[in-house]
Amino acid sequence: MLLFSQRKGILPLQKEVQRESMDSELRNRLWSALQIAVWQKYSGPYVYGYQDPASKQIEALFDLLWLNHFKQPLDTAPPYQTTGHEALRGHFFRANWWQVYDFVEFVMKNIPAEWQGLLRTLVNRFLEEENASYRIVDTEIVEITDDQEIGTIESALDHGLLSVRQHLSRSLDLLSDRNKPDYRNSIKEAISAVEAACQTISGKERASLPDCLKALKRRKTLHRAFEKALIKQYTYARDEGGIRHALSQAAEAPTFADAKFMLVSCSAFINYLWTKAAELGMNLRRDDGFRWRRHEVNGCRSDRPRAVSHERGAASQGWQRQRSQDEATKDSAS
Question: Where are the domains of the chain?
Answer without folding.
Answer: 26-42+52-132, 152-289
